[in-house]
Here is the input.
Amino acid sequence: MKLNKLTISLSTIALALFLVACGDKPKEAAPTETAAPAVAQDPEIAKGEEIFLQNCASCHGEKGAGDGAAAAALNPKPRNFKAPANEWKNGNTVAAITKTLNEGIKGSPMVAYKHLGNENIALLAKYVEYLGKN
Ligand code: HEC
Here is the structure.
């Protein structure tokens, strides 16, 4: 009996969450679609963009130009991902960006993002490389 009640209330919560999540969707989806239609064609780039906007854009800027809201107060400045390779400390290849995200850059506001997990770091590295070329 107890278990049944628990199951019922859990499904009610799940249903409520589902409805809330659905209710929010149109609002969230709209800006992404208008802001970056080309990006959405590659699901990995689209996912990378989402993680980047949440974790990195405050410093690196929405397009990775190093001009996020916090950039003015930082020293050294956040990398502009379009900067030539010789201006990067670890480098602008996917492998080098992965190293930066796992280890951070010592003595700078660029901390390690290892906690995001390998999958998200791989998506981010691909997206940072993409921003460097687009
Ligand atoms: C608190 C501000 C801040 C945040 C947030 C931040 N960065 Fe940085 N990032 C920096 C700064 C500052 C540098 C430049 C470090 C230096 O030159 O020593 C940098 C450098 C880099 C570099 C270049 C490393 C190199 O080889 O020169 C990459 C790549 C990078 N960040 C990616 C990211 C990604 C991806 C995220 C989000 C997961 C992120 N950063 C979040 C401030 C930030």
User: Anything to note?
Assistant: Residues 36-133 form a domain with the Cytochrome Bc1 Complex; Chain D, domain 2 fold (CATH 1.10.760.10). Residues 55-56, 58-60, 70, 74, 76-79, 88-91, 96-97, 100-101, 105, 108-110, 113, 124, 128 surround heme C (CB under 6 Å).
